């Protein structure tokens, strides 16, 4: 009974680290650290319990060959072969990852070994793998195993099949291509020595070319993290470096390193590079778009050469690239939807274009304003102005749309149907709904100004500014535009009148700054009647510039249309340091402890000292003698400096006084003490004086003389 009560609790126990990981994934579903915790936990659980975690993993990262392989290996370990084959069906064709395909071949080899048709099955599996990942730089092992797995044909058929695999591999750039070529040479020589020479010579040139490209291939691929799961752009330096390296690899393939004239082969190699890139950068719309563009260009090139079959194949494949993008990782990316629609429009498939736009509009948690605008433009281009009006009607009925749709529809009527009255009606209709949005009012004013409708423009200004629908905070730019309008076409009295009304509207803000408002009367575009310093002193604010500067970083969200949560709001963030807590730090190998709060470094040298150190000779220039600092300091401490200048001179010239050994005896002149050193035959006083002078302590000449005597 006791164990029966404990067992359910033990089964439901969730480790604390797993709870924290789940909480992180709620905030950011692409947190790789949190996923790694869940993966480790799943690997320690029975597959029946861990399967849910694996399914979540491959659903979140559908293009990650590494995660699919982990899931499949867990099922193989549990011998759930039916589930393994279903997993391979789900991922194998979509994820061209070399390790995943090797796992598939290993599975076929181990599970189908007892079947009577084992060799045929293996041969089919390896041929299938070569077709899909034969251009992979690491495909040497697959090529070798394909040779070994040739089915049970007749002898001649077997020789032909093996030769075909060898010849295919020896012209394909890969690592270990030299070993594959040696194996092929031995194989040919084992069949027929005389025929082998000709067969090898025929393939030698292509092999040398492939070997040259293989070295370049290895260099280009070096540094690429091909196992990284695809996550939304994080704008980190590491990610930017990887993106640059992937694009460098793709550009290298586009440069035709094999120097072949077969455009189909070039296109297949480039698209294989794009497929490898998309496994890692699947959330980057530019990679999808560039891949589709390349296929479109290749299709046109082949059509010009007369290869219509491959041209149509690549054209359809370009559409398939767009379809894969918006159907998997980038379901809400408008850029790809619009470019897909334009591509289908260029192929005159208008029904398909309608379905693309309607598919995007069916997504509920997006702002459809831009979608309707592009949809209207397409309908007008392809089917005429009436079709564009139909889309506009549909847009008006959608509560999610914003004022931009009315502006687009009005301008479309004016420019395309040349009907001013219809455009007026649309602007007036929008004014009833968006009369509190200054951006819409300014668009209406710009339209009237373009028509040179002075009276109508002035009436619109009065209606908007006196209706009370605009709050004072939003009316600043409207007043500035009204003043500019009167400055261009009105007289001085009307200009002063508008200035006075504007001052009254912003009396609290511009109290004591009346001169700042005067600047707007005389400015023109980016020309101002005062210098920047004077403008700052006046307290002047350029309303229009401030408005547009505020609009640049993010889209304008009006009160009438609440902001819709976009995928960008949930993009992952990487940790950022608190720069306010930073202190100078210079890392140093074996740094002495205690010199810096952070172990492993020291405080950097001040900039002024760095300049001085650069001017000094390097330490290697000085090889000794080195000063014994302790002894030098002790000598300086005991040194007794003379109190007078005369005493200092006597000390320098060597005539210093000597203290008696007792320290309190009489002082004796050094010169007098040395009188006994006089020469006995000296007659003159001059000679006596000269003899009484002691030689210098460091007399180099005397030292050399003494050395010669010795």
UniProtKB/TrEMBL annotation:
<keyword id="KW-0677">Repeat</keyword>
<feature type="compositionally biased region" description="Basic and acidic residues">
    <location>
        <begin position="564"/>
        <end position="576"/>
    </location>
</feature>
<feature type="region of interest" description="Disordered">
    <location>
        <begin position="560"/>
        <end position="583"/>
    </location>
</feature>
<dbReference type="InterPro" id="IPR008847">
    <property type="entry name" value="Suf"/>
</dbReference>
<keyword id="KW-0539">Nucleus</keyword>
<dbReference type="GO" id="GO:0031124">
    <property type="term" value="P:mRNA 3'-end processing"/>
</dbReference>
<feature type="domain" description="Suppressor of forked">
    <location>
        <begin position="17"/>
        <end position="534"/>
    </location>
</feature>
<dbReference type="InterPro" id="IPR011990">
    <property type="entry name" value="TPR-like_helical_dom_sf"/>
</dbReference>
<comment type="function">
    <text>One of the multiple factors required for polyadenylation and 3'-end cleavage of mammalian pre-mRNAs.</text>
</comment>
<keyword id="KW-0507">mRNA processing</keyword>
<dbReference type="Pfam" id="PF05843">
    <property type="entry name" value="Suf"/>
</dbReference>
<protein>
    <recommendedName>
        <fullName>Cleavage stimulation factor subunit 3</fullName>
    </recommendedName>
</protein>
<dbReference type="GO" id="GO:0003729">
    <property type="term" value="F:mRNA binding"/>
</dbReference>
<keyword id="KW-0007">Acetylation</keyword>
<dbReference type="GO" id="GO:0005634">
    <property type="term" value="C:nucleus"/>
</dbReference>
<comment type="subunit">
    <text>Homodimer. The CSTF complex is composed of CSTF1 (50 kDa subunit), CSTF2 (64 kDa subunit) and CSTF3 (77 kDa subunit). CSTF3 directly interacts with CSTF1 and CSTF2. Interacts with FIP1L1.</text>
</comment>
<feature type="region of interest" description="Disordered">
    <location>
        <begin position="659"/>
        <end position="699"/>
    </location>
</feature>
<keyword id="KW-0597">Phosphoprotein</keyword>
<dbReference type="InterPro" id="IPR045243">
    <property type="entry name" value="Rna14-like"/>
</dbReference>
<dbReference type="InterPro" id="IPR003107">
    <property type="entry name" value="HAT"/>
</dbReference>
